Amino acid sequence: MCHLTSRYNRHVTLSSSKPKTGPKLAKRTPEIEAIDALFSIAGLTRNRRGKPAGITRQLRMERAMPQELQKPAPEPRVAANGLPFIAVPAWGKMPWLWHGFSTRKGGVSRAYCADDAPGELNLGFTAADDRENVTRNRRLFAEAITGSPDTPLVALRQVHSNVVVVAGAADALRERPRKGDGVMTAEPGILLAVQTADCIPVLVADRKRRVVAAFHAGWRGTVKRIVETGIGRMRFEFGSRPEDLVAAIGPGIGACCYAVGDEVLSIFESQFSYARLLFREVYDSDPVRTRYPMLFLTQRAPGHSPIGPSLHVDLIEANRRQLLDAGLKASAISVVGGCTSCQRELFFSHRASRGHAGRMMSVIGIRPR
Ligand SMILES: [Zn+2]
Asked: Same structural domain for residues 42 and 133?
């Protein structure tokens, strides 16, 4: 293979250093064709036509337009204290359970909105926001879900890992939250929270043993199988049986918007047999770009075309598959809907606001008897 690779590289270097004599150098010898065939088996293709030397992955995904991949969020419900939040319709029949997904609406934060806009519900202690406002927002949200602003709220210092912690009320009093991306408890009267602004929140409840869990899954955590690991931990710690579990995948960045580089595909392929089913080639439907493509040619970043297809990953489906692999029934999994990047009036989006964003919270807890 080393021999083949070095021959191959020599060819590419030649063709890229003398692009004007392209037709002559583009001549494909049987040897080169044999090499290309080998690359093709591995899903790779040789770069041509003035692109930098090297190889890239062949995009042979299903194609889609962004709007085909959108799943809008349900209408938020309004709590007794006036705060809107999103609930899982199928979970209404479990009165023992507290749960909800926040939006950016309501609250007292002014860090991420226009001067004349009403306050917003940033629930993360971000650098741009006042700690006091975030604390007030957290109390408002706890009150919306449980009826009391004093309900202890356990949040994590999230690090895109597969670390899961078992929490109790004492964790709500910590000055520095525990590090991890999953949290679970069997203790009634506390709310477990994960914070997101594009990443995928996943809530899980054990209907028989009354155990609850919350997970934070960005692409890195998804690759590390945070949700699958977390359910394994529920089985280990509490004896939860997968058939007794229900799960809800909350709002996050959708496949409509989540463009990623080829390296993300490679990493997913190294971990999941179904990886290619999670990716789509998505075409930009911007009418100005479609009509005047020449205007945008100079904005090309290396290796990325704003006009042609870009690779999008569906983290919601990725996490749904992890829930299935962990033994949950498909009918026990609710996908709430909503894209943080498309629905910016409703959600904070880290990507859509170039890093200047508040955080939403997804919470779950056991109502005390
Ligand atoms: Zn979207």
From this structure: no
Distance between Cα 66 and ligand 1 center (Å):
7
Q: Are 131 and 53 part of one and the same domain?
A: no
In a domain, 272, yes or no: no
Cα of 280 from ligand 1 centre, angstroms: 13
More confident residue, 59 or 350: 350
Determine the distance separating the centroid of ligand 1 and the alpha carbon of 200, expressed in angstroms: 13
Residues 30, 81 within the same domain: no
Evaluate whether residue 284 is within a structural domain: no
Residue 98 C-alpha to ligand 1 middle, in angstroms? 28
CA of 196 to the centre of ligand 1 (A): 15
pLDDT in tens, 196-242: 999 999 999 999 999 999 999 999 999 999 999 999 999 999 999 99
Tell me the pairing of strands 279-282 and 62-64: parallel
Assign 3-state DSSP to the chain and report helix, strand, coil percentages, each to 5.
35, 25, 45
Residue 256: which of 358, 356, 344 has the closest Cα? 344
Tell how far the Cα of 6 is from the centroid of ligand 1, in angstroms: 42
Query: Quick one: 242 and 181 in the same domain?
Result: yes
Distance in Å, CA 254 to ligand 1 centroid: 5
Instruction: Provide φ and ψ at 111, rounded to 5°.
Output: -75, -25
State the pLDDT confidence band at 347, using cuts at 50, 70 and 90: very high
pTM of the model: 0.81
pLDDT band at residue 18 under the 50/70/90 scheme: very low
pLDDT tens for each residue of 248-271: 999 999 999 999 999 999 999 999
Q: What is the spatial distance between Cα 100 and Cα 85, in angstroms, rounded to a whole number? A: 6
* Domain count across the chain: 2
Ligand 1 geometric centre to CA of 71 (Å): 8
Q: Which domain holds residue 5?
A: 1-58
**For the residues 18-37, what does the mean pLDDT come to?**
63
**How many angstroms does the Cα of residue 236 sit away from the middle of ligand 1?**
36
Alpha carbon separation from 72 to 287, 319, 339, 362 (Å, rounded): 22, 18, 7, 17
Same domain (yes/no): 96, 216: yes
- Residue 74 Cα, ligand 1 centroid: separation in angstroms? 15
Higher pLDDT, 294 or 167: 167
| Distance between Cα 223 and ligand 1 center (Å) | 21
Q: Using only C-alpha atoms, what is the Rg of the chain?
A: 24
| C-alpha 34 to ligand 1 mean position (Å) | 41
342: in domain: yes
Instruction: For residue 230, give the CATH number of its domain.
Output: 3.60.140.10
